[in-house]
C-alpha cells in the first residue's frame, strides 16, 4: 500500500478504537437516568468509567489530528459541510466533561441532578450524531468541484443517516450496559443485565437494517462477511449478557462496534467523501492526501509514539480492573455525590 492508503487505514483504526472505548462510556452516560435509581447507583455508574473516560477521548483527538495532518482537504470539506453537527458534538463533550468534574463539588441533590442531565445529554447526543456523520460519509453529500460541501439539514439528516444515528446510539447504550454488568456489582449490575436484553430488541434490527442498506448500496465483496460477523457478534453478546457471561458479552459487543466501523470505512474507500452533486467531484484518498514528506514524517512519529500511548492506556485499564460496588452501609455522608476524578 502507498502512504495515503496506509494513513486512511490508520485513521480508520483510530476511529475504531475511539468508538469501542468511548462507546461504552457514552453508553454508561446515556443510561445514567435509566439505571441510576438513586444517587448511590449513579455514583457507582460514574465511578465505573471515572478513571478511563478522559483517556478514551485521546483516540478522538488523535484521529482528528491525524486527519488534519494526513488529509487536509478531507478535513476542510468535513468542516465546511458538517460544521453545525460537529459544533454540537464538541459542546456536548465539553458539558459532559465539566459535569463529571463538578457533579460532586456541592452536597446538594438538585446540583447533582442538573449535572446528571448534562452527563446524559453529553453522552447521548454525540453517540447519535457520530452515527449520522458516519452514514453521511458513506452516502455522500452535495459537494462542488472545489470540494466545498453545501449541505442543508435535510441533506445531513436523511433517512439513511438517521438510521445510522439510531444504531450507534442504541449500540453504544448496549455496549455500556454490558460494560456495567462486567464492571459493577449489586443493583446496577442486575439492572444492566436486564437492560442489555431489552436494548438488543431494538439494536439487532437496527444493525441488520443499516448494515444491509450499506452493503446493498455501497458495500464491497469483502465488507459482506464483516457485516455478517458484526450482526452475529451482536446477537451472541446479547445472549451472553443475559446468562451472566459479561466478559465474553463485552468482547462480542466490541466486535460489533469494530465490524460496523470497518464496514463504514471499507464502503468509503477509495473515496473519503462522496459527492452527490457529481461523482466526478468526489474527494479520493489520493487527492486529499498531504505531500509524501509529511506522510513519511508522520509515519515515523506514529511508530514511536503510538505504542507508548496504547501501552499506557492498557496499563490504566489493568490498574482499575476491579468491580465497582456500592458501599456496604450508607452513613449520613454517603449521599454526597463525588466526581469521576475522586473515584480513582
TrEMBL record:
Alphabetically, the GO molecular function entries are: electron transfer activity; metal ion binding; oxidoreductase activity, acting on diphenols and related substances as donors, oxygen as acceptor
Membrane topology category: Multi-pass membrane protein
GO cellular component terms? Answer: cytochrome complex; plasma membrane
InterPro entries named in the record: Cyt-d_oxidase_su2
Location in or out of the cell: Cell membrane
User: Where is the chain membrane-spanning?
Assistant: 6-36, 57-76, 82-102, 114-133, 160-183, 195-213, 219-241, 248-273, 293-315
Q: Which GO terms describe its biological process?
A: aerobic electron transport chain
The alphabetized UniProt keywords are: Cell membrane, Electron transport, Heme, Iron, Membrane, Metal-binding, Transmembrane, Transmembrane helix, Transport
| NCBIfam families, A to Z | cydB
Name the protein family: Belongs to the cytochrome ubiquinol oxidase subunit 2 family.
PANTHER family (alphabetical): CYTOCHROME BD-I UBIQUINOL OXIDASE SUBUNIT 2, CYTOCHROME BD2 SUBUNIT II
| UniProt-recorded name of the protein | Cytochrome c oxidase assembly protein
What organism is the protein native to? Pseudonocardia asaccharolytica DSM 44247 = NBRC 16224
